[in-house]
Design a protein that fits this description.
Shape: globular
Helix content: 25-40%
Number of strands: 6
Bound molecules: zinc ion
Number of domains: 1
CATH class: Alpha Beta
Largest sheet: 4 strands, parallel
């Protein structure tokens, strides 16, 4: 409701060509579309970004807790701008727009809930919303399945500038599970992925709480 009203008041413009109507028009977004999905651990081409069997068995892959991670776009140019605007400029009504880029990526599995990667309470207070939650809710609406908050985040963690191994260590102890009776099949939505370490840690917690299958979905990859 509010989103639709804001859309009328503040017309969205494409971060690439400034054309009105969408924060990322079809033409501009298509140039950044990832045509091949890959295993988040080793990069081998894989449908819907399914984690290959070798990486599912290897803790060193950093994504072994995830059944797969689908990524829509390359994080660059207008894609990057649109994500930053959603995150920092309060353009929360742009989430519905951006969520449409997930469409072809969602695996055919029937999910019980859609959830998101949480941000810290400090950041939530500062920003007033979590952009990944907005994206996750938009995906839940697309799929006609419920959105549920399943995870929390303790406090700000500064991941910038860390290498892959440091990131893997860093994400442990950042999140916690908030669910009592866990959903079995969970689709967890994030805005941007780099190594997959964050999604993997979230998947680990969800599985430790009883979820059997966790898939990730990200708008863009660094
Ligand atoms: Zn455009
Ligand atoms: Zn792999």
């Amino acid at each position: 409701m509010l989103g639709q009203l804001m859309r009328l008041l503040v017309p969205l413009a494409c971060a690439g060509c400034q054309r009105e109507g969408s924060v990322l028009c079809q033409q501009c977004g298509a140039q950044y579309r990832l045509m091949t999905q890959q295993c988040g651990g080793c990069g081998v081409a894989s449908r819907h970004g399914r984690t290959c069997e070798r990486c599912q068995k290897s803790a060193g892959s950093g994504v072994h807790q995830l059944r797969g991670v689908g990524v829509a776009l390359r994080y660059d140019g207008p894609v990057k701008q649109a994500v930053l605007d959603l995150k920092f400029k309060g353009q929360r009504w742009a989430a519905d727009d951006l969520a449409s880029w997930y469409q072809d990526l969602i695996p055919a599995e029937a999910f019980d809930v859609v959830t998101c990667v949480p941000i810290s309470p400090e950041r939530y207070r500062e920003r007033g919303y979590n952009q990944s939650e907005l994206l996750a809710k938009a995906v839940a609406r697309q799929l006609h399945i419920p959105y549920r908050s399943c995870l929390g985040r303790y406090s700000n963690s500064h991941q910038l500038g860390l290498g892959r191994t440091d990131r893997l260590k860093q994400v442990a102890g950042v999140f916690y599970s908030t669910i009592q009776r866990p959903p079995k099949r969970v689709l967890i939505v994030d805005d941007v992925v780099t190594t997959g370490a964050t999604l993997n840690e979230c998947a680990r917690l969800l599985r430790a709480s009883g979820a059997t299958e966790v898939w990730g979905l990200a708008l863009a990859r660094h």
